[in-house]
């Protein structure tokens, strides 16, 4: 089985597993598969039916409570009343596209853009991170006249045709297309001498050279600035600077995919790229932007957006509607009012320290790393190799004990720890204690 | 100026026009352009700031009321309380992706799929019509192993990279890519002997032959089943049957893009394809599906969806969340409870008759056509040629008199009449009387 197949199969319900589900659950799953068909993806060998959620907790149909350490979309907390109220208020009054002026859309655009460094001053509103990355690719193509992209080898940037091409983790067997080059994730364990910056920039340079040599040319490198699907790589801060320099020197762009790290998760400002002291050419956003209200966006420089719009008309029907703007604005307000960036930093550091304590006593944890409330924890076998089986075991055991968690990385052996940003220290304690107990009882 | 450029420029605010806007409006527009940049698209030489909307009416910042005869997203009526309440209720309780089971998602999928003929029994939820058409293209590619698509010459199917390739109306100067063939719209005026079915199917066959000859192969023909951007062509009912036969005989698929005609607008069932007595291989939906809540979908046969999923993992983070399901379910309920399909049929027929009366007395209206509450009205000059100038004049004069309307068609000379489905006969009277007066005073 290839690494990619491992990721796709990870902790996914498979009807073919023939697991003996309770009759009621079996019936629910059968209904799901009859309607959603082959595109149905359900978590766990025994899927969970969720009925409500609040803050850091979700509740299933049997009233069982789960601590959510997985879902990064309801980032300011499940069912946050400020977001729910903002949506409820606006949707009863006006919900229309941006070809009319509306105060909520313009006010939100100004509020969001005030969070970006110059010269990133134009916002295009879309509905999904996929749409944002699809647009970002085309802005880069228009700006450079080139079509080559460089991504990491377990990258996931979305689900459109064009974005799937730069998402190796979505491909089950086919290689990436000719215009895509795949480079290793910035893993200190892979970098000679642990020099992540030189390792990553060097691999980028080699990929660019190959694109140029093959006559494809280099449009952009696009990275999730915390490398979520690659296994979470945040350190050392600043390591992306060398990559930005390489991209610019080659005449291409640096696209920061902030769909995962954005909106405060890394605990060091709103954006993952801030950790690296860089200014990307294009920034894409999605998932947590509206705390679950479908909305996303692209921020870039006016000159780049203009080049794209010269040839292609772009309009997004739902993008930037006043209800989305109300949701997005409430999210920014809550992040500020509730001090969620500081909370991500403080609770994240506390959480990481707790996890590191477990690691200190065990040989099956290879590393704990991350920034803020985005932490990766590697499981390894006795030979130090990625242990996907252990990750899957832990994920299911955690579920039994009321914790939702998932995995990432090329081998699916890294716990992907990314709870809502209102996560508290006692939530972290519960997770650490539970993980310790599960591993001890193995 | 090419036809396509005409459409893109149609009734769009252009800063370069140097229109003398009132200072307050000029300031608002400047704020918009500073934030949205080159991707900002505003209607009218003097853009309108909207503040609220209800039923068939919208209200601007000065309290001026507009009868909405343009916006097809808030299809069951602006700010419909049933939709607003369904969203408000659900977003306060649970908003999560489909990798958990949720009753709202499964119940909505079953309700929606019950509105489709066999063998269309699988639904994939997305967020936008663009995402739906992007996915439909890939399902067709996977099913046929071919990559050629046939579309009409002013088609618009969405804004992703792949879908833009099959949307000639989005391209400002470049030709369509090598895998796309463009055929004329099914205009009775172009069809020899007025035989629209033979004309359209014959052109499709020629396009397919060319794709095969060039070694590209034929994957699918995709049509908006009421040909909105082409200028609205609904008659005679059944004319698409011959095209479906041609597509199937060539081993390709027929994709019905229901983003515009879907959800009752044509007054003859929920779908535009019903008018033609056909069963498409893939149906895509969008705009009115959630009355403005960002949601969309793809319905197809299980065998086709399975073929696609064999190679590519598809998951849509926001797609099928329970809030979208609640909105979509409320929309279906309102359509049924308020008899909106019958209303579209009855008021649409009444409306079309009223417009035809104007045409009977004038030489500058070439045709009135459509189905239900989707009506096209062609403006022509003294030589019988498309008169985009008159369409633009009417659109702006209508605005002054409190009516929102737009244009479509290859030359932008066709009034695109598609009000909310709760449109009443007195609303139609107001439109007809106003149009008559505007034309009389010219």
Automatic annotation (TrEMBL), chains A, B:
Official protein name in the record: Aspartate aminotransferase family protein
GO MF, any single term: transaminase activity
Keywords: Aminotransferase, Pyridoxal phosphate, Transferase
Cofactors: pyridoxal 5'-phosphate
Entry-linked SUPFAM superfamilies: PLP-dependent transferases
Protein species of origin: Pleomorphomonas diazotrophica
Origin: domain of life: Bacteria
Family: Belongs to the class-III pyridoxal-phosphate-dependent aminotransferase family.
